[in-house]
């Protein structure tokens, strides 16, 4: 039997919080303390991107000073109660983005499939000045336009990867196919492979692939998810994840 942790300490677990890269959802890693992992992840989300993440153009639409009042999970629906700052200011895109950030962060946990919102303890049926209708729980599919066509959920920004690297996430591309490229610290293409999701062409599916690569130098690199235009064959980038690539 493994030794018990020192009194007053708890094992920490890895979670994902969802910021914005451009106008699309982008996950980042955080460590939270169980058992309130979803609550911990949402509080980490509200704290905003780190300096490194901001340097990689990760942003948030959630107003500074927003606080999580409570989260209650029942039958795979999380009721999330935010402070009044949550619906302050912003146009339609900002309002939908901040809702999506919370929904994607909460539903990263298997026990949560959808989110119901409250603000200052009151159920939300119309959100913000734009009047976004929230007459029931919402899930990731309700914010499909805010997800890149290829959403990489692992590895995450800042991760260190070794050969072979496992890459997984979701995609909604033509005929469910796309490409994954790994660029090493020397700017060399260490891998460039095709991948296929479980569905596509209007329906988001999942993918999980293991990619062998050959790096010429260890250090800061990039994982790029892209697809080739049917019109002229040029590469259309959907997601980029800065990582440390090890030889």
Automatic annotation (TrEMBL):
**Pfam families reported for this sequence:** Germane (PF10646), Gmad2 (PF10648)
Q: Where is the GerMN domain?
A: 38-128
Q: Which residues form a coiled coil?
A: none
- Name by which UniProt lists this protein: GerMN domain-containing protein
Signal sequence residues: none
Give the InterPro entries listed for this entry. Answer: GerMN, Gmad2_Ig-like_dom
User: Transmembrane segments in this chain: where?
Assistant: none
Q: In terms of domain of life, where is this protein from?
A: Bacteria
